[in-house]
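User: Can you help me understand a structure? I only have the sequence.
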Amino acid sequence: MAHYCFLDANNIVTAIIPGQNENTVVGGISDWEAYYGEKWGAVCKRTSFNTHGNQHTGPGEPFRYNYGEIGYTFDPTLGDDGGFIAPKPGPNFILNRDTGLWEPPFDE
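Assistant: Let's start by predicting it. Here is the structure, written out as tokens:
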């Protein structure tokens, strides 16, 4: 089962639903992001429950850096397909663009 995130105008995740797997064709529908997006009237992006820090927890490839959760931001500039990023935990945290995770500031 795949999961799909719905985004507001600022690319913030506002809702998540389970849905059809990306390779499933039903009634001629194969682009589930487009289908769910049209049905909900919002931008829709698939997310992977098994991806965290741009690593897949089982067999398979990481997808979109992190599992999208409500309040996460979808950054279309991460990787080839964009990525989901948690809210910034503090003003000095730095986004690691390889993992899609926030790193704490370092004292020098």
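Now, to help you interpret it: The first helix runs from residue 32 to 40. The mean pLDDT is 95. Let me know which part you'd like to focus on.
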